[in-house]
Write a structure and sequence with these properties.
Chain B: InterPro entries: ABC_transporter_permease (IPR051393), MetI-like (IPR000515), MetI-like_sf (IPR035906). Chain B: Residues 118-330 form the ABC transmembrane type-1 domain. Chain B: Its main location: membrane. Chain B: The chain crosses the membrane at residues 7-30, 117-142, 154-177, 204-229, 250-272, 308-332. Chain B: It is found in: Cell membrane. The complex is a heterotrimer of chains A (350), B (342) and C (296). With 350 residues, chain A is of the alpha+beta class. Chain A has helices spanning 42-50, 92-102, 107-120, 136-148, 166-183, 194-200, 218-223, 228-233; strands at residues 4-13, 16-26, 31-35, 57-62, 65-66, 77-80, 154-158, 186-191, 203-208, 211-216, 240-247, 250-253, 256-258, 267-273, 279-281, 287-290, 293-296, 301-307, 310-316, 327-331, 338-341. In chain A, strands 6-7-8-3-9-10 form a 6-stranded mixed beta sheet, sandwiched between helices. In chain A, strands 13-12-11-14-21 form a 5-stranded antiparallel beta sheet. Chain A is elongated. The relative contact order of chain A is 0.11. Chain B is mostly helical and 342 residues long. Chain B has 2 domains: 65-111, no CATH class; 112-341, Orthogonal Bundle (MetI-like fold). In chain B, a hairpin with a 2-residue loop joins β2 and β3. The longest helix of chain B is centred in the last third of the chain and has 33 residues, at 309-341. By secondary structure, chain C is mainly alpha-helical. Helices cover 84% and strands 0% of the residues of chain C. The two termini of chain C are 48 Å apart. Classes of the chains: A alpha+beta (350), B mainly alpha (342), C mainly alpha (296). Chains B and C meet through α1, α6, α7, α8 and α9 of B and α1, α6, α7, α8 and α9 of C. The structure holds adenosine-5'-triphosphate and magnesium ion. Adenosine-5'-triphosphate (ATP) is lined by residues 13, 16, 18, 36, 38-44, 192 of chain A.
């Protein structure tokens, strides 16, 4: 019983809108990831759920309780902070036990539960150290252990991996995924790293400037971005976006001309396609332009062109080579194209 | 933090400040509008062998009764502010109307107790503050280049003049400059003048008090500047060296700008502290030649039986006005920053 | 090339010499008065205030003549026993201890609230505190006296304690506020999510990390109460006097009786605790002075 419901939750500081009408049902046992660029309101949303930030407008429900007015301690959720928030004066053991102690869990259970949590995150060898004597990854795991020790109704994690190096990030990510599988606790996870979002999430919420842009499974988000923001934010590299004219199923923008688009829409549109979906062809193709630059990625070569004001990238085989300014052709078939309204940025068609 | 929690946490401190800082200021305002009761006089007939004389005497009992019935005294409006012991408006009018030139005006105004105290207080504030800061800065520069082991002891001795109780510090110096003390007799020997006494003349007394002021004020500037020196960006300093800056240019263009904000802070604190100069005047028994605003208040309150509450309150208010003027640049700046942000 | 570096080196050596000389001079100026007075407090008056030669104070010619030894504790005996200075010492101990403890208790609570509240009124309270901090203490005293007489609370130690606590608050609040700002907000927030109320988070998580700041602020509260003259001189009755007003009252009465050495001994006695304080807490004092500077 731990679905979380946000009903038009809004946060304003004076005139500044931190989060605008956030409306979402999060299912029990779901792993939800909040994704968005820096300053888009992810942390604020999470802090409102935790009760650390007042809500300007709207309602938050945990299970069947409306928690707007509840203190953080009465909400029965646990949170992993970006900077971990470990208690420097306590040992690892005491840190993990702290939630049990303040919540008056019977003393005889403490040891067992702390040990169990410590074991899950592989911390057993460090129990009597102080946080100052731990590495970043170990601190991170103490924070995790402290969150899971009391078996709350939900976990909130705010960029828990952002202070770790790349390698550690991969292994801890796997650990978090595994923990969620074992504990089956509803989890809200904040990140601005899309790989994390894609690998961990049941569903992803993409936010920008305090407004939810799209909610969906990682595949949805990747394959059917709801608007140009999501299209331009998700994927590496992000989707190519070209402004142009659409008339009778034919898109035209200088060096790009795509025919046979399955739409009845006419007028100004933005055409999107992913670098890996397009291919370099010796002749013809929908795009024909001089090469602007070529980068070797190891597993592929990335060719880019200037189209209008934008850079358009296309992935080619790893042994493909082209000179700068050499005229090259690329195939951008209608099936791989996404169309967006130029004005609103919203997706056109399915 | 919700308003309720905030209030619960801050309440004790705010109540303490309201009751014992804000309310006393109100009390000072009220008291300044009143003046002591006039003494109740009675006529007594004294009959002796040479007949009877009538004599006017103070009826102590009736005076005391009046005082206890109405301890504030009688209402005097703003009278106290303008009387001879304070702003002395009419005296100044007379002086301005009839005088022998500027020198005479200055001398006669200086003889009015309030202006005398004001002049000393301002001179003390604006001479001791910069000198103390410069001395502190120089000490900080020298300590910075001393070897690591010596720093501890050097800082220890440098802190002493600051943490010493002001009254005690001034007494210690006072005893030394006493004509029978070591410094006093050394000066007499130096100037070959056995009657030389720092207490005797006004300029020398002022000088002594200024020296004392710089002595106690310098350590604070020293500590703050010293701490600031530890955070001077090493990269900038080194690139200045590579760019060919001399030692003085490095101080001028790297170190001093870096310490700028600290200097503002030190100046503010020191202005506030020096403006209330008081203990050294008591310690040096300097009241004949130098008085300060705080000392005037103290003097009015100190009388054993006749404490001049009204007069003390008026001086206090004028002092507070001085403090506000002193702080006004900071307050105005804060206000501007704040309303810009909002 | 080598010529210029020689010049540079010579110049920097001159500079080093000048700066060392300057520092030595300053140290003498800073420390000598104390050493001299401590030394002199063990002499008789005709040595310490010698009409003949300052060397007498060094060698104690008259001290030897009058007491038979080059050092004498007469001044201390006179001050502590004959003139009841011990009583002032006890009073000072009570006053400073109470002021420090109470100031810190209400100051940490308030400073914490100010550091954690993002609301505007927190800012205005800090500005008001700054203005209050600037009030000369004697002007406040002139506000207290008459009401205290009327309420019949003049003269008691408790009254002075409360007043000193209040006068101390603006400074305490500022200093603790800046110390609390340096403690990450995440700490108390994780505690609250873990199940603490705001107060429990403050008590069990923040305060244990805050000890250095609390100790430093405590030192300054102590110094304020210990060094105060304006409040204690005006608000305490003769019996309840603390050391500083007691010393000042010595001056009035003793100087005439020719026993100025009582006052010298009392001054040295009152200075000794400050010496120890700086010796043991030098680092905290320095960090306290700079905490205000960096943040405030
Ligand atoms: N107390 C506050 N007062 C005013 N504005 C605030 C406050 N806290 C946050 N904001 C603003 O709200 C916006 C959202 O902040 P938030 O911390 O939620 O961003 P975020 O998505 O977590 O970013 P990041 O990825 O950098 O952590 C930011 O523009 C921030 O400046
Ligand atoms: Mg964030």
């Amino acid at each position: 019983m731990a679905e979380i419901r946000l009903k038009n939750v809004t946060k304003r500081w004076g005139d500044f809108v931190g989060v605008q009408k956030f409306d979402l049902d999060i299912a029990d046992k779901e792993f939800l990831v909040l994704l968005g660029p820096s300053g888009c309101g992810k942390t604020t949303t999470m802090r409102m759920i935790a009760g650390l930030e007042d809500i300007t407008d709207g309602e938050i429900w945990l299970g069947d309780r409306m928690v707007n007015k509840l203190e953080p301690k009465d909400r029965d959720i646990s949170m992993v902070f970006q900077s971990y928030g470990l208690y420097p004066n306590m040992t690892v053991y005491e840190n993990i036990r702290f939630p049990l102690k303040v919540r008056k869990v019977p003393k005889d259970q403490h040891d067992e539960r702390v040990m169990k949590a410590a074991e899950m995150v592989e911390l057993k060898d460090f129990l009597d150290r102080r946080p100052a004597a731990l590495s970043g990854g170990q601190r991170q795991r103490v924070a995790l252990a402290r969150a899971i020790v009391r078996e709350p109704t939900a976990f909130l994690m705010d960029e828990p991996l952002s202070n770790l190096d790349a390698k550690l990030r991969v292994s801890t990510r796997a650990q978090i995924k595994n923990l969620h599988h074992t504990l089956k606790t509803t989890t809200i996870y904040v990140t601005h790293d899309q790989i994390e979002a894609m690998t961990l999430a049941d569903r992803v919420v993409v936010m920008n400037k305090g407004v939810v842009q799209q909610v969906g499974t990682p595949t949805d988000i990747y394959d059917k971005p709801a608007n140009t923001f999501v299209a331009g934010f998700i994927g590496s590299p992000a989707m190519n976006l070209v402004d142009g004219e659409l008339r009778d199923g034919v898109f035209e923008a200088g060096k790009v001309r795509v025919t046979g688009l399955p739409t009845t829409h006419n007028g100004k549109v933005t055409l999107g396609f992913r670098a890996e979906d397009a291919t370099i062809v010796p002749e013809g193709g929908e795009l024909s332009a001089p090469v602007y630059s070529m980068e070797l990625l190891g597993d592929a070569s990335m060719i880019s062109f200037r189209v209008g004001g934008e850079l358009v990238s296309i992935k080619a085989a790893k042994d493909y080579r082209a000179e700068i300014d050499e005229q090259v052709h690329a195939a951008i078939p209608a099936e791989i194209c996404h169309l967006f309204d130029s004005k609103t940025g919203a997706r056109l068609g399915a | 933090m919700p308003h309720k929690t905030f209030l619960a946490f801050i309440l004790p401190a705010v109540i303490a400040m309201l009751l014992f800082i804000a309310l006393p200021i109100v009390s000072v305002i009220v008291q300044s509008l009143y003046v002591e009761h006039e003494q109740v006089l009675e006529e007594v007939e004294n009959c002796g062998p040479f007949g009877c004389t009538t004599e006017v005497r103070v009826d102590a009992e009736a005076t005391a009764a009046l005082k206890s019935a109405d301890p504030l005294g009688r209402f005097n409006g703003l009278g106290t502010f303008f009387n001879r012991s304070h702003l002395a408006v009419s005296e100044i009018g007379v002086i301005l109307a009839d005088n022998d030139g500027l020198g005479d005006i200055a001398a006669r105004i200086y003889n009015l107790p309030f202006y005398k105290a004001l002049l000393f207080t301002l001179s003390y504030t604006f001479i001791v503050t910069p000198l103390g800061m410069i001395l502190g800065f120089l000490i900080a520069l020298s300590v910075n280049s001393v070897s690591q082991v010596l720093k501890g002891p050097v800082i220890f001795f440098s802190l002493l003049p600051m943490i010493i109780t002001p009254l005690i510090g001034s007494l210690i110096l006072f005893w030394m400059i006493n004509s029978q003390g070591i410094l006093g007799s050394a000066l007499q020997a130096l100037f070959n003048d056995p009657t030389l006494s720092l207490k005797a003349s006004t300029p020398l007394t002022w000088l002594t008090l200024f020296v004392y002021g710089v002595w106690t004020a310098a350590p604070f500037s020293f500590v703050v500047f010293y701490a600031g020196l530890q955070t001077v960006p090493g990269d900038t300093l080194e690139s200045a060296m590579i760019d060919g800056a001399s030692r003085w240019e490095r101080v001028r263009y790297v170190i001093i700008p870096h310490l700028g904000p600290l200097a503002t802070f030190v100046a503010l604190v020191q202005l506030m502290d020096n403006f209330r100069v008081f203990e050294p005047i008591v310690g040096f028994s300097a009241e004949a030649n130098a008085t300060s605003l705080s000392w005037l208040v103290f003097n009015d309150l100190q009388g054993e039986s006749t404490q001049l509450f009204g007069s003390a309150a008026a001086t206090s208010l004028l002092t507070i006005a001085g403090v506000i003027v002193l702080l006004s640049p900071v307050l105005v700046r804060t206000w501007r920053e704040f309303s810009n942000k909002a | 090339m080598s010529g210029t570096s020689m010049i540079a080196r010579r110049r920097s050596r001159t500079l080093a010499t000048v700066s060392t000389l300057f520092l030595i001079t300053w140290l003498i100026v800073a420390a000598f008065p104390f050493l001299w007075t401590v030394w002199g407090s063990f002499k008789v008056e005709s040595d310490f205030f010698s009409r003949e030669s300052w060397l007498n104070a060094l060698f104690g010619v008259y001290t030897e003549m009058q007491t038979g030894a080059p050092f004498t504790g007469d001044g201390y005996y006179g001050a502590w026993i004959t003139r009841d200075f011990w009583r002032a010492v006890v009073n000072t101990a009570i006053v400073t201890l109470c002021v420090t403890v109470i100031s810190l208790t209400i100051g940490t609570l308030g400073g914490y609230a100010l550091a954690r509240s993002g609301h505007r009124y927190a800012f205005w309270i800090l500005i008001a505190a700054l203005v209050f901090r600037a009030m000369p203490h004697i002007t406040l005293v002139s506000g207290y006296l008459l009401p205290f007489f009327e309420l019949n609370i003049w003269g008691h130690l408790a009254t002075s304690i409360v007043v000193l606590v209040a006068i101390n608050q603006p400074f305490t609040l500022w200093m603790l506020h800046s110390f609390f700002l340096s403690i990450p907000k995440d700490l108390d927030e994780s505690a609250m999510v873990d199940g603490c109320t705001r107060f429990q988070a403050f008590r069990w998580v923040v305060i244990p990390v805050m000890w250095p700041g609390v100790i430093t602020t405590g030192l300054f509260s102590f110094l304020l109460a210990y060094n105060d003259f304006a409040v204690t001189a005006m608000l305490l009755s003769q019996d309840n006097q603390t050391m500083v007003p007691k010393i000042s009252s010595f001056l009035g009465s003793i100087q005439e009786q020719g026993n100025v050495m009582f006052a010298v001994a009392a001054v040295v006695s009152a200075t000794a605790p400050l010496f120890l304080l700086v010796m043991f807490f030098q680092r905290q004092i320095v960090s306290g002075l700079t905490a205000g500077a960096v943040k405030g």
